[in-house]
Every structure is written in structure tokens, then in C-alpha cells.
Design a protein that fits this description.
The structure holds 2 protein chains of 2 kinds. Chain A is α/β, with parallel strands linked by helices. Chain A folds into 3 domains: 3-77, Ubiquitin-like (UB roll) (Roll); 123-208, 2-Layer Sandwich (Alpha-Beta Plaits), CATH 3.30.70; 213-571, Rossmann fold (3-Layer(aba) Sandwich). Chain A is built from 18 helices and 17 strands. Chain A has helices spanning 21-27, 79-93, 110-117, 153-161, 196-200, 212-220, 251-261, 269-290, 303-312, 326-341, 359-363, 384-393, 415-418, 425-439, 477-492, 523-538, 549-559, 565-571, and strands spanning 3-8, 11-16, 51-54, 60-62, 73-75, 141-143, 168-170, 177-179, 206-208, 225-230, 265-268, 297-298, 349-355, 380-383, 457-464, 467-475, 501-505. In chain A, the strands form 5 sheets. A 5-stranded mixed beta sheet of chain A has the order 2-1-5-3-4, with helices on both faces. Chain A has a 4-stranded parallel beta sheet with strand order 11-10-13-14, with helices on both faces. A 4-stranded mixed beta sheet of chain A has the order 12-17-16-15, with helices on both faces. In chain A, helix 15 links the parallel strand 16 (467-475) and strand 17. In chain A, helix 8 (269-290) packs across helix 10 (326-341). The longest helix of chain A is centred in the middle third of the chain and has 22 residues, at 269-290. Chain B folds into 2 domains: 13-68; 80-160, Glutaredoxin (3-Layer(aba) Sandwich), CATH 3.40.30. Chain B has helices at 13-22, 28-40, 45-55, 59-68, 88-92, 95-106, 151-160, and strands at residues 80-85, 119-124, 136-138, 141-143. A 4-stranded mixed beta sheet of chain B has the order 2-1-3-4, with helices on one face. In chain B, helix 1 (13-22) packs antiparallel against helix 2 (28-40). The termini of chain B are far apart. The chains are: A alpha/beta, B alpha+beta. The interface between A and B is medium-sized, with 17 and 12 residues.
Chain lengths: 583, 161
């Protein structure tokens, strides 16, 4: 590693050459305030809050976008910089509505924190707010351009990380705003509802559509039997809202909190993740051994990815697993199998899902297959952030709750189900079961290291009785194109497909870093949440989906076998090509 | 090269050739959009969509460009586009009064078109005729040393045509 010698606030230090002043200062535990900068994205240098002074130079540099160089002397904090930063904040506030009390980011806003830390008490500049309409056209997120500080994070994340290009800077100067092309509504744009814009927005300009009221209303309705499922990724992140570390597993407390809220049954999406594996692995084995469908098979549990594929890669529809996502499967069996068990009709059951994801709010009505029970299979989706708010508002002391268990018979899960929440996890879970379906034996080494990790695209081979199965994993939508173009190229040239099975998750790191997770997700946080899920898996009594006793029970009592007529009706879906723009 | 597109707009062969010439070159988008505006007088949405498709560029990127540069127009201008100079000299000599009066006479604002499609108003940067300030331009015709009371007469000239 090439290094340079620099001085920060007079203290000499040796740091890696080429890193930013911001990163160098962080290594010395000095925090330079930022607003537009986010570690997931290239430095944008838009806001000017991170300015620092250089010794022997009248220049001020933006710490996020200035690399360190040999001999550099940097001053990160002094009264002059304090004054300058305060002025920058005051200027930003002069175009920002101050209705913090009614803002979706109240007490969780980076601009609000800056204003608090810098003791802003007055507005010295003329206030010029912009009168721009909210976009609430999607079921997932709300874009409120009035609150936008033009930091560029959302457009960057939409373009660089996700390659979706729904959002762009429109106009110039003080009229610059974030919007889809041609002023299309988000719902008519290529937006895949992943919500990464909302997870990266430092203020309240993009946020999830709050639907907590719907769940409360259902709980209040005495005629409704309210059943709630929680997604794999929620258990390693919700705790952050209550002071736990990212990755700390709070499954039992979440079950308990839901019961305190007054729901009637608590289930786990991990159960349906196991169900998904039964269907998807069977489908894969049939494609592989009987040629029943296109190879490679693509995973279909991520609704943002499904939406992306329908818009950008609709030629891949035949490659898609027809298996619904775990959430939709859980909803379907809740309103059929479980309803029969408790002798209630589907319309008497209210099915809610706690998800790390904003696209899930869209998924529940995306096509008529989402109504397989005769009713809407999942009635409402709340993100992890929304559940945290509900728990607080209900006066539940989350930290002192005792662990509880999920309800039966659709609440037990295997370790394979739990790792659905992180990149590589679906593939690993599917291979554990596919191996058994082909060989009748259990995979000798359950941890499949080739598909673990954080590289944007990972690939490897798994030996199933002499047959080499080539698999690939991609996460962060922008990485998916790389893999799919390889597949398209091989197909066009009449060559063998480069992979047999590809897992895709739209968000970097997978669902653990979904658009509905607690704010402040960085790669460091991702790594901790992923470690939490692998820990949950390692500690599980049963680590493969086909060995989950409640899975065996549901096939015996209700579904018959994977890909049966009943499975097809309840657990599978279809896809259609959709235009990028509906304008 | 004939290009099929879902968009119901036809590009001239010249425009299509121009796009091919610029396909691989850096900075091509602006050159292509200039040509599109030359052909249509503005950038129709369908044309932007067609450029996006042919050049394999996100539509959002195209809108980023055409809303950034004043030169590009998103709406069809009137048959006669009236450019009122807001350069320093014209501004000091009362360019803004001319603009306000024009807006009130025509009943439209800047970058809008009269309902009959006859006129549109545009506020422009210095047109290089500072000696004649304040100035407005209709097509190729330059009107200098303007006063508000001359506007009806100028408009009448084009209204008759």
C-alpha cells in the first residue's frame, strides 16, 4: 500500500495515498460534518459543509472530494470553519421548509442534526421556498421536492448503484429539482420502487409511504383476525431503532412486540422462504434434468428486481422462476391453509407483512396472482422503519421484552430461510435443497463460501453428483446487467449458458440493506447485518428448507408436493413486459 | 439506416445519419439534440424518447441536458417566437418593461405560446446589439431602441401574415 505523510490539525499521520481528506480524518477519529456525501456513492461536493483549510494556503477544500497528498497540512475544525459551516447550513435552511414536527424524518434527519449541532436559532436570510407538488403516484415512496437540498444522493443511487435512471436533476440554478424525465409521475417512470433513494436521502424529500394506520385499524376491527409475518432482514435491523447494534438478532422480541400491539397471530416470512425453496429448487431441478424450462433460472423473490426485469430485460421472462416471493407465499397460505385450520374465511383474515423493503408495498397488488386466496393475499406492508415507530407509539419497552416464539403451523423456519435476507443467501438455501432433491442426500458442507461475500457479482461451481452447477449472485441492480448480458451474449451466439442458476437482489447487500431499513446503512452496517443472519443460520436446529417439519407438514396436509396444481395456483406467478415510461 | 421505434415520430434521413455520425463520439448527445431542435423547432417528448432508444441513453439523461441548457425548448414555440433581450444594456434601458408589456398584451408568460399558436415569448441573453438597446427579435427581424407603445404595431405586422 502506497502511503503519504500528512498532518491533520497539527498531528502527523501516515495514511493510504489517494484517500479523501474526509476518510483520512475519520481514521484519526475526527468527524468532519457532511450532508451530500454518502460512503456508498462517489463524492459529489454539492453542499460545501465538509470544507477544510489547508496550511500555508488561502484555499478551502471540500474534504469529501479532495485526495490527500504528501506533506499536506489540514485543519478540520476551527472557529472560522465553524462560522463557514454554520453559514452553509443557514443558506440551505433558507430554501428548506421548517415544518420538522410533521416531517417523515423528524428526529432522524441529517440536516436537522446539523442545525442542532451548530446551534442555529435564527434565519438570517430571506426564506425562498419552492412550491412544488408531491409525487405519491407509487404505492411505495413519496417524493417531496420542496424538501430537497439537491445533494444528489438519490439521483446518484438511482443511476450509479441501481442503473434505473428514474430520477435526474431537472432544470438549473435555483430551479434545479429532482424528478423523473419529462415530468412523468414516478409510477409512470422506470422507478422500481426499491426505495434506495429514500434510504439515502439525508432529509425528508423522499420517504416511505406510511401505512401504519391501516394495521392499527385492522387490529381495532373485532371481526378481523390479524396475522403478521416478519421478513428475514427485519430481525437483524429493527433493534437498531432501540439501541441495539446492527446484526443483533431480535426475532423473539419482535414477535413479542407484535403481540403487544394486539395482532392475533405472528408468523415468519422465513417459513415461506423455505416454501419458496421447495418450489424454486424443484423447478430448477426439473429445468436441469428434464429440460422443462430455460437455463439459467433466475430467482424471483425480489419485487424491485422483478419490476426491473419486466422493464429492462423482458426477454428474460422465460428464465424467471415462477415462484412467488416468500412474502406473497406466506400471505397465500395464511389466507388458505391457516384460515382453514382456524375455521375462518379468507376475508376475515387481515394479512400484514413487516418488510425491509418499499417495493414490497407495490408487490402486493402487482398482478392478479397476488389475489390467489380469492382476497388480496397480503393486505398491507410496513417497512422496518414503520414498525419501529409503531412500537414506540404503543409505549412498548422493546429492550425489556422477553423472547417469544412464532405461531404454528406456518411460523417455524430453517437456517436456509433466514439467509434469504442477504445477498447469496437464496442461492445457498436453494443449493442445500436442490442437492437433496437430485441425490437424496444432504449437502456435505452446508456453508457455500463461493456465494458469500460482498462483491457485486460472485460466481462459483457446486458439484452435484459429478455435475458441475455454475451459479452466479448479483446484488445492487447495476451489477445485474453485467451478468445478464453475459447470458444474452451466449444465447445469441448459440453457446451454452455461462450459468445454470442466478440469484439477484436489487439492493446492495440484499434485503438487509433494503430501502425500508433503519437509516444509516453503510457497508459496515451491511456486513454486521449479514453476519447476524449467518449466525442465525448457524445456530438453527434445521438448516435446510426441506427438513423444516412445518414445511413437511404443509405439503402433507395441504399442498401435496412442490409444483402440484395447488402449489401452482397459490404459490406461483407470471410476468409481463412493461414499458419504461407510460407517458 | 432505417430505425424502427414505438414512438410515433419520424426523423429525417439527415437527422438519422447525423446520429450515426456522432454515435461513438464523446459529447454526442448535445450535438444530436441540437439537430433535433433544428428539425422540430423544439424537443418533442416523442423525439427525446426516440433519441433515447436509438442512442441507448436513459431518457432521464436527455431531460437532464435539455432542461439545463436554455437553448433547448421543451414546448413548441409560436409561429413567431419573440425574443426579448435581457442582456445588461437592454436590461438597463428598460428591457424588463418591454417584456412585461409584451406579456400583458399577449396574455402569456415567458416560454408560453398564445392559444392561436401565433406568438411565443422568450427572454434571451445579450444578442449583441447593445447599441440598439432595448431590443427584441422576431425571426430574422431586429427591433431596436424600443418603447412600449411600439409593441402593438410590431405585433400587428405579424398577426396579419
Amino acid at each position: 500500500m502506497k502511503t503519504v505523510n500528512i498532518k491533520i490539525n497539527g498531528e502527523p499521520v501516515e495514511v493510504e495515498a489517494g484517500i479523501s481528506i474526509l476518510a483520512a480524518a475519520k481514521e484519526m477519529n475526527i468527524n468532519i460534518p457532511t450532508l451530500c456525501y454518502h460512503s456508498d456513492l462517489p463524492a459529489w461536493a454539492a453542499c460545501g459543509i465538509c470544507v477544510v483549510k489547508l496550511e500555508n494556503s488561502p484555499k478551502m477544500m471540500r474534504a469529501c472530494a479532495t485526495p490527500v497528498s504528501e506533506g499536506m497540512g489540514i485543519i478540520t475544525h476551527d472557529p472560522e470553519l465553524h462560522q463557514i459551516r454554520k453559514t452553509v447550513i443557514e443558506l440551505i435552511l433558507s430554501t428548506h421548509p421548517n415544518d420538522c414536527l410533521m416531517c417523515g424524518r423528524n428526529q432522524n434527519c441529517e440536516l436537522q442534526s446539523l442545525a442542532a449541532n451548530y446551534g442555529i436559532r435564527e434565519q438570517p436570510y430571506e426564506v425562498r421556498l419552492r412550491d412544488l407538488p408531491k409525487d405519491d403516484s407509487t404505492p411505495s415512496i413519496i417524493l417531496n421536492p420542496e424538501k430537497c437540498v439537491n445533494c444528489g444522493r438519490c439521483a446518484n443511487v438511482c443511476q450509479v448503484l441501481q442503473d434505473v435512471w428514474a430520477l435526474e436533476f431537472v432544470g438549473r440554478g435555483e430551479n434545479t429539482r429532482i424528478a423523473p424525465a419529462a415530468d412523468a409521475a414516478l409510477a409512470d417512470s422506470p422507478c422500481i420502487k426499491c426505495g434506495q433513494c429514500s434510504a439515502h436521502c439525508p432529509v425528508g424529500a423522499i420517504y416511505e409511504k406510511d401505512e401504519t394506520g391501516k394495521l392499527l385499524e385492522a387490529i381495532r376491527d373485532e371481526n378481523k383476525h390479524v396475522a403478521v409475518q416478519i421478513a428475514p432482514a427485519v430481525r437483524v435491523a429493527l433493534g437498531e431503532a432501540f439501541g441495539y447494534e446492527p446484526g443483533d438478532i431480535s426475532t423473539g422480541k419482535i414477535y413479542a412486540a407484535l403481540r403487544r400491539l394486539g395482532v392475533d397471530a405472528v408468523f415468519d416470512t422465513n417459513f415461506a422462504a423455505d416454501l419458496t425453496i421447495m418450489e424454486e429448487a424443484t423447478e430448477f431441478v426439473q429445468r436441469l434434468t428434464e429440460g422443462s424450462g430455460e437455463i439459467p433460472q433466475l430467482t424471483s423473490c425480489c419485487p424491485a428486481w422483478t419490476d426491473y426485469m419486466e422493464k429492462y430485460f423482458s426477454d428474460m421472462i422465460p428464465n424467471f422462476s415462477t415462484a412467488k416471493s416468500p412474502m406473497m407465499m406466506q400471505g397465500a397460505v395464511t389466507k388458505t391453509y391457516y384460515a382453514e385450520k382456524i375455521k375462518r374465511s379468507p376475508e376475515e383474515i387481515y394479512s400484514a407483512a413487516i418488510m425491509p423493503c418499499t417495493a414490497k408495498k407495490y408487490e402486493i397488488t402487482r398482478c392478479e396472482k397476488m389475489y390467489s386466496s380469492g382476497e388480496q393475499d397480503v393486505d398491507v406492508v410496513l417497512t422496518t422503519r414503520e414498525l419501529a415507530r409503531l412500537i414506540r407509539s404503543a409505549g412498548i419497552d422493546f429492550n425489556t421484552l422477553s423472547d417469544e416464539a412464532a405461531d404454528s403451523p406456518i411460523g417455524k423456519y430453517s437456517g436456509a430461510g433466514t439467509i434469504f435476507g442477504n445477498t447469496g443467501g437464496v442461492m445457498e438455501a436453494a443449493l442445500r435443497t436442490a442437492y437433496n432433491f437430485v441425490t437424496g442426500k444432504e449437502l456435505p458442507e452446508l456453508n457455500i463460501e463461493a456465494v458469500r461475500g460482498m462483491d457485486g457479482v460472485r460466481s462459483g461451481e457446486v458439484d452435484i453428483e459429478g455435475k458441475k452447477i455454475r451459479v452466479a449472485v448479483a446484488h445492487g441492480m447495476a451489477n445485474v446487467g453485467t451478468v445478464l448480458r453475459e447470458v444474452q451474449k451466449a444465447k445469441a451466439e448459440g453457446k451454452e449458458p455461462p450459468y445454470h442458476f442466478i440469484e439477484v437482489m436489487a439492493c446492495r447487500g440484499g434485503c438487509i440493506a433494503g430501502g425500508g431499513q433503519p437509516y444509516g446503512t453503510t457497508d459496515e452496517v451491511r456486513a454486521k447485518r449479514i453476519a447476524g443472519l449467518y449466525k442465525d443460520d448457524a445456530a438453527a436446529e434445521v438448516r435446510a428448507s426441506h427438513l423444516n417439519p412445518e414445511i413437511q407438514q404443509i405439503y402433507k396436509e395441504f399442498l401435496g408436493e412442490p409444483l402440484s396444481k395447488k402449489s401452482h395456483d397459490l404459490l406461483h406467478t407470471k410476468y409481463t413486459s412493461r414499458p419504461l415510461y407510460q407517458i | 439506416m432505417a430505425v424502427k421505434s414505438d414512438a410515433e415520430i419520424t426523423f429525417s434521413q439527415e437527422l438519422l445519419d447525423h446520429m450515426e455520425t456522432w454515435r461513438e463520439k464523446p459529447g454526442n448527445l448535445i450535438m444530436i439534440l441540437h439537430k433535433v431542435q433544428e428539425e422540430f423547432g423544439f424537443i418533442p417528448r416523442e423525439a427525446a424518447k426516440k433519441v433515447a432508444k436509438i442512442m441507448n441513453v436513459p431518457l432521464a439523461k436527455i431531460y437532464g441536458v435539455i432542461t439545463f441548457y436554455h437553448y433547448f425548448k421543451l414546448n413548441k414555440p409560436g409561429k413567431y417566437n419573440i425574443q426579448v433581450c435581457m442582456g445588461t444594456a437592454c436590461y438597463l434601458k428598460g428591457g424588463e418593461d418591454i417584456l412585461n408589456e409584451l406579456e400583458s398584451v399577449l396574455g402569456i408568460g415567458v416560454n408560453q405560446v398564445t392559444t392561436d399558436g401565433q406568438f411565443s415569448i422568450e427572454a434571451v441573453r445579450c444578442v449583441g446589439a447593445c447599441g440598439l438597446a432595448p431590443v427584441l427579435i422576431v425571426g430574422e427581424d431586429v427591433f431596436g431602441k424600443l418603447t412600449k407603445d411600439r409593441l402593438p404595431e410590431i405585433l400587428a405586422k405579424y398577426q396579419e401574415k
